[in-house]
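Why do we care about 3D structure at all? Because function follows from shape, and shape follows, mostly, from sequence. That is the central idea of this module. The next example makes it concrete: a single protein chain, its amino acid sequence, and then its structure expressed as tokens.
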Amino acid sequence: MCGRYTSTSAPADLAKVFAVDDMKVDELPLRYNVAPTQDVYAVAERRPTEDGENPRRQLGAFRWGLIPYWAKDPSAGNKMINARAEGIETKNAYKRALTRRRCIIPADAFYEWQVREGDAKGKAKKKNKLPYIIRHKDGSPLAFAGLWEFWRPKDQPDAEPIRSCVIITTAANDLVAPIHNRMPVILPAAAWDRWLDPGVTDLAAIQGLLVPSASRDLEAYPVSTRVNDVANEGPELVEPLPPPPGFGAEPSELQLAPGLDDRPVAEHLQVGRVGRYPVDHPQL
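And the structure:
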């Protein structure tokens, strides 16, 4: 799943990256800990008009958590932050949007939590979760595949609609799998036009884009558990966590962000294992 991510790129920069025609949004706050129900940036294309005007790509603000058009109230979207790619075409909340309202949700990085075993006092072990941040190696924005909808109360047909969105997830790639078994669908640049094109309605073609991204373009590293609290914000949330004392090395192909220290990557993380960070590690 994807329950938190970072949004630190300026809308003007996103407009350039995603070849946006129209800016339909005021600048949102800089966020290192984007959480569900907050307003987020999304890129979508307006359908062609009856007079033959071509689709126009727009950058707008959408509430994270898709509110189905048939929902009785907006709270229905509070838990619809992720949509599994597998079988998405059969889900009542998403099947209409899949063919009519696809979008790209830009992110600078996203967080996933790795289950680990800890021992705070050298006694009983318990399960804990350690957050990792995943991002493009070159720092460019990630393009999450998303869907959007608009909703207004049935008894207020003239009310301003709420535009909301959902992030589509898929099975984890080789990089993310040791951390979590799911990840957002990250669309490569070559797929952006097809994904956003409202004229593409063939389900097979659409679903063919909903696959795990290539691991070679991404990097991951552990960060402080301060990100667990939605009230915490700031660039310190994305700072690499120092390696734990006495962490043993094993061969690993997992790509970590540079600059943690001069030791081999394998000494920071073991593929398929849980990092040996004590529960009371000071940076957690």
